[in-house]
């Protein structure tokens, strides 16, 4: 019977391997995302951002228009089709540590504390309602002076601290008490010139520490003033530079031990607040003066990047802002007046990342960067993503500054680098998000990474038909004002 059976084909010498058994990922086992995994999918987060809503600053006080509102109407009435040169625009923004409140200040002197949840909910309402609900403001004050910077007090989240480049005062407001007067005013010490006249010192930036008694502010004369609120309204310590150029930005590290400063001369300065060899170099009137521990010329460090030097002339440029990466504290981001951004590694003092957008004159020789504003960028709380307003266009750059050569902005980046951890490779690239207005300052929600951008101004026209814009024939129709832009992740992308 066996001779009638079909013989069985011999098996191959290399039998196929059984399919691999399914195994749980490390994320499911330990509930944590590896940093490389976060970076591999960060492109999805960057691609998901789009403008959600604009909230124009058309507010009122006691039934009348606030000073910022009035200034924009005046500027629009007399400077139609021209850039406005008066006081205008949102100059600074900041979230509190829990992301419950957002504070903003304007060049015209308005200080406003917004409830973020109210803003977010209103962003989903019909666009017919363009203005923010003023009744939901926590605080709205109109002060008779220019305001250039604002920050929450890290040690007391009921306090906001403001400065002006036109005044030598630090204004501290307690939002628990609705008052147009600050609860505390700190002043710099008067400085007399060789001719005997007082030297004007405006204040540019603020840093607060976890110690409620200490506040720091940089000035237009190259000094960081340090106050101890328990002692006096005048500084107890001055951190000096080797020049008298304006310090535009300062950053205090997480341990309140090292402070970084940068400004008009293109230098980054470093002070050690713990003392050391320069702890008491000069002492006068119970005031101690500290020279910097070190100073770094940023243009010299940029010249060390061979490909960059081969393509561009490296000259010293004004530094608008410096920011410490919250997810990688040794990364100090910088932003220059020509729109360049990058990262300085404070461990080895090398520039590790650089982003160089094309200059304004490349596309239009008549366009130049707005030099009236110091652009104030911000980090996302995770993934080492940097958000900065464009120097020439209406929009923001979302930059991948991950501390590794897999970042597209890294000076050693190679396009053929393969992704790690077996995760499907995502395109790693920086992204520009076009917006309806030019951006001066950015703030990022500390928990959900929603971006809020403050703007300069834009022309508002009267709509006569849903699809037709009528340019005003009379100057009364044209207004110029700035807005809060909410940039959030798209639900489709998420």
Automatic annotation (TrEMBL):
Domain of life of the native organism: Eukaryota
Record keywords: Repeat, WD repeat
Region of interest: Disordered: 1-21
Key word Repeat present: yes
PANTHER family the UniProt entry points to: ANAPHASE-PROMOTING COMPLEX SUBUNIT 4 WD40 DOMAIN-CONTAINING PROTEIN (PTHR19857:SF21), MITOCHONDRIAL DIVISION PROTEIN 1-RELATED (PTHR19857)
Protein name: Transducin/WD40 repeat-like superfamily protein
Gene source species: Prunus dulcis
